[in-house]
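Below is one such record:
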Amino acid sequence: MRDGGRTMSIADTPLDAGQPLRRPVQLARERAGRLRLRIAEGHSDAVARQHALGKLTARERLDLLLDAGSFTEIDMYRKHQVRGMKMAENAPHTDGVVTGSGTIEGRRVFVYAQDFTIFGGSLGAAHAAKIHKVLDLAIAAGAPVIALNDSGGARIQEGVMALDGYGGIFRRQVEASGVIPQISVVLGPCAGGAAYSPALADFTFMVRDIAQMYLTGPDVVAAVTGEHVSHAELGGADVHGGRSGVATFVYDDEESCLADIRYLVSLLPANNLEPAPALPARGAAFDRRPALTEIVPTEPNQPYDMRSVIAELLDDGDFLEVHELWAQNVVCVLGRIDGEVVGVVGNQPMVLAGVLDIEASQKAARFVRFCDAFNIPLVTLVDVPGFLPGTGQEYAGVIRHGAKLLYAYCEATVPRIQVIVRKAYGGAYIVMDSRSVGTDLSLAWPANEIAVMGAEGAVNVLFRKELAASTSPGDLRTELIKQYTEELMHPHYAAERGLVDDVIDPADTRIAVAKGLDMLRTKRKDPPRRKHGNAPL
């Protein structure tokens, strides 16, 4: 402060009588408060531009995501230290990313939200260091981390230091994989190297119209390939939600997206050493569901929606479906049975008759591995006619990709229950968590058909010569199909050989699964001692 022309220090400042040191401390607090408020409010023009793009600001997003008043910000005052490339005169606080911790329904999470109003959310050394710190804290505290991505990519003015910053993020994400849940949310551009971060996360959320994610943008694509494509066509939410499978969830607006992130967190454990949060028991062990007898047709070729079966098994019919728009011939959901969180994998007869193919195998394998990493029991609902045939699948490596699902189930140590709802043919039966690959409990409905293939196909192979020589091939085929079915595909054939533990009334499925999960709750199985396996990636 100044006294006339003389600069005065705090020691020279006159004190109010009876209140020593109060005034300078109060002034310092007021200055700090004004600075914090100015940083939090942001530049009004930049905020207006963000809203004009149909996007919320980083802090508005955090307000919706976290419990009210729970956010503790760290590194608010951080600035970049670059002096060249016209950067010295423009060094705003936060450096374009808001980092810290808060709670969701009272449970601790760590977060970072890129701020597009500052340098377009671009990543430089200081920006990256803030993200590194929050990832380190999340791993140390054993709490989920949520990334809100809205960035123009690497900060060009900082050159290789920006690329080094991305590398540090990716390394920490890999260290955190299978240790804490990682959720990535794309709420704007996410291009170039930045796109690897959502790909490394356990779950990726995108919002239509405002989110774009790609390694090379439309201009580069046009220059290199001559192909002209828009941002949305190249890397929009529907592309990654329905075609590439990079996006786990897709939404029409930020509000519903952030609300479902809160719901997802409520289903997940804080880390790999803790169980998922449970709700009070719901009496599932006494809860018959007669509707199940009506949902599934006995004819093996008649379609139905597997989600209807899942809804009858889960508490209140409530679940969160993973990759709903991608590889729809298999359904993967998180929900609860008797208050306990479970992961459910089921073939979907409504799409491609429920066959397994490359994308379905990838989708289910990643889901199984996530559940196993975070102590979430698995329930597998089987109604599968086999793997999708064709040169397209074979040339693209369906063997290798199908082996991913096989590998995931074989290495899973969580409680596992298989329910054969209708048919289970060939290698697809083995892959869908059969007894031979280690399921703990195998249940089957009375109309189950477990075989190398369907009776008609088997007869055509086994009795090809007899059918060709017959004067009444139709009648002979019918008789042979009946014989094959009665001898090798009757409902108790697998049970009599120890591959099915019980043939149950469909209405009792929720009861049987709930009792099985209760029986397996204390299951412990240590994996073999090794650095890691070599999954067929």
